[in-house]
């Protein structure tokens, strides 16, 4: 317990140092004075009996020592020393804004050039890449010399170039103080990570490689390879979920799915946390102990946990869990029982000593409070359940129920009790549905981690073997996603609280701690979740069977206009499944994440290739997603329309196809692509902007002008040569010059399709286009979500995501 109090005192000191802006030297001076006074007290106690008696009487007033395990009275000055050390540590990491620090040059007129080393793997998004660079020197203009500077800068650069940890980069752009919005401070968020300078629009030039730590480089390379394997053996959104659970990479999870995880209180599943570390540590201990013996096995397990912590990014929750896991192994080796409160306090203090900004990190706060709730309340809640149940049920039945109820309901309740104020304060809402969602979803998670992890490991060695094991883990991952989406549709379980005063948070914790320690109901323990999956196996297998059956060819022609817009940026992607089961993709939209998710939901799990890819436009918003899915859904053939150098994404797509040896056929007017069963796709026009396609099967005809030029309308007599069509896709998200009224009237479509983003940045569709569509049936992705047409050649059936 003294170790616990010293750890808490250090954390209090950090908070004190943040409130009192005294320099580090002042705190160090106070440490020296306190240390001298403490040594004097020890000498007086040893040499003067009367002073020793008076000291013990003076120390006896402390009630804290009677409530908890008391510390020796002469150890109290150690608490003061710990407080002062925490304050000194916090002040020691505060940046000094001077010419040698990168933030000194924020918000100056004009752009600058900086050089430095990439200290983390590149954070890739759909439309940009974040680079965290440790700056070494800065240049104001080309004709001026470089100036030595220090500090971290976060640069936002265009997609396309490959950046890796340890690269030496030259960045050019305007240095700014990170922005602060009304509901979120990016400045404070980056400050927690030691970043005080930001380049919102930068350009990067690689100057060298392999200038980082070789061990970290190897770990990050393994992570990159493992991430690639995840997307090769699983479809989206299951692949992106596993990437988050196993590797801490959650950027590929669709925004709506992420929101569902938050609404249902299950976001801890996709964030590497103590739950994941507990499972990993258990596996490492069992494996290495059998292979190397007890002592060496424990050491190997600690090394394995450390490598995994670095591999997944090492955020606050992961590091805290890793330290607590290491302390548990140490206690086991020296034959002592681990104390949960002490482990939590020591691990938090160690983390804060390396990064004194951690107490302000929301992830750290949630992780700390959740673990505190488990330590204090998990066992009392379980005991209360057993005592209550024994009144009505036989003892054997109660014992069988105690484990699952405790692990998947009561433990969740214990963690939510202590995290409730933090959640309410930061996110301004509470999720009651989590009390139902967690017991349903958590039992499948050990299988997700264990089978999913084994599949990835085997996939690194031999990909087909990894795919085989992945098929065993896939139903559990599908169950997780679908269950979260199901519970996320409920609005009754989410309470929006609005802005909450910090005073209420303090009052809540004050009352909770008073009640807790007054009743003396807490006992320390370590928590390990055990799999309880037997009852769900049959249901999960049924999900697998039905989903595979529903995705198998049914003899119909399917045309799905996917909803792939990203934010306010419109785009289009059309997935076609022929009656014989072939898959064709036309364009891809602006977001790799959205496209990968849409394909993963539509294509069979065992069919991870496209039979055809049609590049029907050169517009960036129609093509940007395609380079990112070549590894996940490689096409067998490509029909290319448009210039090969029209945009950055077009260039990288073409280079990727060439590198993989995928045949590319240039689209020409008059070409016919036979798709089997009498279905054919005709190229009516092909030029520098793209193509116009006509898909036909008996009486069914759908016109897809994915990249028409203005001359194409004249060559096609504004649709008179084509005749009436069953369905018409509006070109360029309803832009008026690309959709002349005469064109629409001559085609006389039974149904008009429009792919456009909600709140399109260019205010599409054009009002003139909407006026020309008066009297026509119109479906649009911003209102209806994905649009699915199916036909047998005679009849057409229409299904939409939202009616």
Give your account of this protein's structure.
This protein has 803 residues and is an alpha/beta fold. Helices cover 48% and strands 15% of the residues. The strands form 4 sheets. Strands 1, 2, 3, 4, 5, 6, 7 and 8 form an 8-stranded mixed β-sheet that branches. It has an 8-stranded mixed β-sheet with strand order 16-15-14-13-12-11-24-25, with no helix packed on it. Strand 18 and strand 19 form a beta hairpin. Helix 1 crosses helix 5 (76-92) and helix 15 runs antiparallel to helix 19. It is globular. The model is unreliable at 60-71 and 520-540 (pLDDT under 50).
Tag the structure with descriptive keywords:
single chain, 803 residues, alpha/beta, 8-stranded mixed sheet, 48% helix
Give the topology, please.
Blueprint: H1 2-19, H2 24-47, H3 49-59, H4 64-67, H5 76-92, E1 112-118, E2 123-124, E3 129-139, E4 147-148, E5 152-157, E6 168-173, H6 186-191, E7 195-199, E8 203-208, H7 214-233, H8 238-247, H9 255-263, H10 274-292, H11 294-311, H12 316-333, H13 340-354, H14 362-389, H15 395-427, E9 429-431, H16 434-441, H17 445-461, H18 463-488, E10 494-496, H19 502-519, H20 537-551, E11 557-561, E12 574-577, E13 583-586, H21 592-602, E14 610-615, H22 620-623, E15 635-640, H23 648-659, E16 664-666, E17 672-676, E18 679-686, E19 691-697, E20 700-704, H24 710-715, E21 727-729, H25 741-747, E22 751-754, H26 767-772, E23 778-780, H27 781-784, E24 787-791, E25 796-800
Parallel strand pairs: 5-7, 13-14, 14-15, 15-16, 20-21, 21-22, 22-23
Antiparallel strand pairs: 1-3, 1-6, 2-3, 3-4, 3-5, 6-8, 9-10, 11-12, 11-24, 12-13, 17-18, 18-19, 19-20, 24-25
Helix pairs in contact: 1-5, 1-13, 2-3, 2-5, 7-8, 7-17, 9-18, 10-11, 10-12, 11-12, 12-13, 13-14, 14-15, 15-16, 15-19, 17-18, 18-20
